[in-house]
Each structure stands twice: as structure tokens, then as C-alpha cells.
UniProtKB/TrEMBL annotation:
The gene is nuoD. It is an enzyme of class 7 (translocase). Transmembrane segments: none annotated. GO terms for cellular component: plasma membrane. This is NADH-quinone oxidoreductase subunit D. It is a peripheral membrane protein. Keywords: Cell membrane, Membrane, NAD, Quinone, Translocase, Transport. It comes from Streptomyces typhae.
């Protein structure tokens, strides 16, 4: 183009008050109509068959309603038609990542009704396996949460470490996910010969590689940018909704049944047990609590292995009558499951089946906090907040 060639300027002329503005692509009723967006019930970010009904104002969430029940199988009603040996099978499935811990709640409730003392060897072995199960649960979320935010590598590390522990859990119980190793009065059988040595090796192998989450995940500026200050849950909301476990402790609620109402052998592990808390209450704090609690569960497993090795050989269960009946009455047994407080309210009429067995699962209460957490946040942060609640949908629907 020559210097003398005239051309039309590309700059926009100044705005005048007479100019009209037109918005395209929204619709005539945009100013008075909210958008309703359904996430799920089949969606990769919902940890199962969960539906979220979101009311949006542009990219911001105004209201959020968790819609549950798609996986409901009526376990509490089925408890009433099974005897006290059979209900263990129903109880260990609602949180499929915490099967051993689920079993504990129901057998502890029945043993309390019977006034039954469990052999010391069974008490310590139960504590050991509960902590190994806790690590298995937490590793799944330590790997899957970064995956939901776009980081694919950590989940491969998580499954490698899980395999180390899955192998020893499968060897001792015969089950890979649903262990069915607890019995009313103790355990199914004693530990296999040489198993404690193999378990100790698996714990050491997992511990030696746990720093990958500190470096690869917590050290990642994108992960921290997506989680710091996002989805802040206050301590008041924790109490209002009955939130428990690592999610509650990430909001500064310093409560852990293993320390505050000891069961199994936790009363003797006070020098090893560490209740991990944070004050920020955001997604990052919840992940940090989960990670640090995993480290502590490995320490507790080592302490239990030391104690089991020192115990003399002896029984791991009590002899039970052919027909087991709990006396008439009621009791409540609760445990600190990996995802939070798990409780069983057992009512007996003196028969071989429970008259009523009400399950209080951790995820059911925890997921209600979404109604508090999501309003006011961006849709882009929804997956980060949802994943940081570390829930299992079967644990919600029961």
C-alpha cells in the first residue's frame, strides 16, 4: 500500500448515548429466567450415580440440590431379614472402599448387646486391618482427586501403592474388596504364617513412595490455584450438617472417635495417633488432611504390627451358639471410618435377626454440605469442590 492510499480506519467510533445495545444468543426472557443445569446422574465427576441440580446465573451457581437415591438398595430393611452372622455381608458394601471398617461397626454393636469380650489378639488385628483399609481408601482419593482436576499421573501412583496393600489384605481374608473377615466375637481365622512380615514390607514400600503426593500434587501450582480458597466450609456449617472425618477436621473441628471415644486398641495408641486438622476449610485443606492422615495410618499400622508380633498365640474369636440371638434392648455403636463417622443403631427383640438396624453413614451427611458450599461459586469450581468431599455414592444411598 502506497503512503498516499486512503483506507477506512478500523477503530470503533466513540459510543454515544443514542446507540442501542443488543445481546445475542440468550433469549428474550434471559433477565428473568435462571438456567437449571443437571450434573448427572451419570457423570464422570460424581463418584457414582449422583445427580446435582444447579440453578445458574450465568457462570455462577445460585442454588444447588444434591439428588440422591439412584443406588439405594434397602440395606437397612434387608438387615431385618438376615441373622446376625449374615448382616456382616450387607454392612460391608455401602462404602466399597472401606469394607473392613464397615464390618466393624455392626459386629461391635452386636458384641455390645451380647456383653461379649473379644480376644486381645483379635482386637489388635482388627485395629491393624482397619488402618490398612484406611490407607487403601485414602489412596484412591489421593489419586482420583487430581485426576478430576486434569492431572492424570497421580492416579497411577495411587493404584500401584494400593496393589501393595491389596495383596496382603487379600492374602489374610480371601477377599479383594469385600473382605468378610470380621465375625461376631472376633475374626474369621488367625493370620497366615509369615503374613506380618509381608504386611510390614508392604507398609514400608507404600511409605517410601508417599512423598510423590507432596511433590507431584501439593507442589503443583495449578493444583494449588484450583483448590486454595475454593469451597470454604465453616466450622459452624460442619456442626449444622453433621459433617465428619477429614472434611470436618479440615475446617478446624478437632474430633476423632479413635482418640475421643476409643474403641478396639486405639486407647493404647495415643502416642502414635495424630488427629490431623487444618483451619482454612477449603479444597486444599481437605486434601492436605487426607494426605497427612494417610501417613499417620501407616504409622498406626506399624505400631499394631509390633504389638501383634509380641502377643502370644491364642484364639482370635469366641465360640458362638448355633443360633445366635441378641438380648432384648438397643445400643448404638460408632466408629471413625475413613470417610467419617459410621454408626449403627441396633434394636433387638431377642430374636436371631435385628428388629431394627439403622445405619448412619459418613457420606450421607457430608454430601449435604454441597447445598452450603456450591452457591456463589463458579461452575468451573464445581468439580473441584465436589471431588474434595471424598464421598462414595453407595455410602450415601445405602
Amino acid at each position: 500500500m502506497s503512503p498516499t492510499t486512503e483506507h477506512t480506519p478500523t477503530t470503533r467510533p466513540p459510543r454515544t448515548t443514542e446507540q442501542a445495545e443488543t445481546t445475542f444468543g440468550i433469549g428474550g426472557a434471559a433477565e428473568s429466567t435462571d438456567m437449571v443445569l443437571n450434573i448427572g446422574p451419570q457423570h464422570p465427576s460424581t463418584h457414582g450415580v449422583l445427580r446435582l441440580r444447579l440453578v445458574l446465573d450465568g457462570e455462577r451457581i445460585e442454588r444447588a440440590e444434591p439428588v440422591i437415591g439412584y443406588m439405594h438398595r434397602g440395606a437397612e430393611k434387608l438387615f431385618e431379614a438376615r441373622d446376625y452372622r449374615q448382616i456382616v455381608m450387607l454392612a460391608n458394601r455401602h462404602d466399597w472402599l472401606s469394607a473392613f471398617s464397615n464390618e466393624l461397626g455392626v459386629v461391635l454393636a452386636v458384641e455390645r448387646m451380647l456383653g461379649m469380650e473379644v480376644p486381645e489378639r483379635a482386637v489388635w488385628t482388627r485395629t491393624l486391618l482397619a488402618e490398612l483399609n484406611r490407607v487403601l481408601n485414602h489412596l484412591m482419593f489421593l489419586g482420583s482427586y487430581p485426576l478430576e482436576l486434569g492431572g492424570i499421573t497421580p492416579v497411577f501412583h495411587a493404584f500401584r501403592e494400593r496393589e501393595e496393600l491389596q495383596n496382603v489384605m487379600e492374602e489374610v481374608s480371601g477377599g479383594r474388596m469385600h473382605y468378610m473377615f470380621n465375625r461376631v466375637g472376633g475374626l474369621k481365622e488367625d493370620l497366615p504364617a509369615g503374613w506380618t512380615g509381608r504386611a510390614r514390607g508392604a507398609v514400608a514400600a507404600v511409605r517410601s513412595r508417599m512423598d510423590v503426593y507432596d511433590r507431584l500434587v501439593l507442589g503443583n501450582e495449578i493444583f494449588r490455584g484450583r483448590t486454595r480458597g475454593v469451597g470454604v466450609l465453616s466450622a459452624e456449617a460442619v456442626h449444622a450438617y453433621g459433617v465428619s472425618g477429614p472434611i470436618a477436621r479440615a475446617s478446624g473441628v478437632d474430633f476423632d472417635l479413635r482418640r475421643d471415644e476409643p474403641y478396639l486398641a486405639y486407647g493404647e495408641l495415643g502416642d502414635v495417633l495424630k488427629v490431623v486438622t487444618r483451619q482454612d476449610g477449603d479444597c486444599l485443606a481437605r486434601f492436605e488432611c487426607l494426605l497427612e492422615q494417610t501417613h499417620n495410618a501407616l504409622d498406626l499400622a506399624d505400631a499394631c504390627l509390633d504389638r501383634v508380633a509380641d502377643l502370644p498365640q491364642g484364639p482370635v474369636n469366641q465360640r458362638l451358639p448355633k443360633v445366635l440371638k441378641a438380648p432384648e434392648g438397643h445400643t448404638y455403636a460408632w466408629t471413625e471410618n475413613p470417610l467419617g463417622i459410621n454408626g449403627y443403631y441396633l434394636v433387638s427383640k431377642g430374636e436371631k435377626t435385628p428388629y431394627r438396624l439403622k445405619l448412619r453413614s459418613a457420606s450421607y451427611n457430608n454430601i449435604q454440605a454441597l447445598a452450603e458450599l456450591l452457591p456463589g461459586t463458579l461452575v468451573a469450581d464445581m468439580v473441584a469442590i465436589l471431588g474434595s468431599l471424598f464421598f462414595v455414592v453407595g455410602d450415601i444411598d445405602k
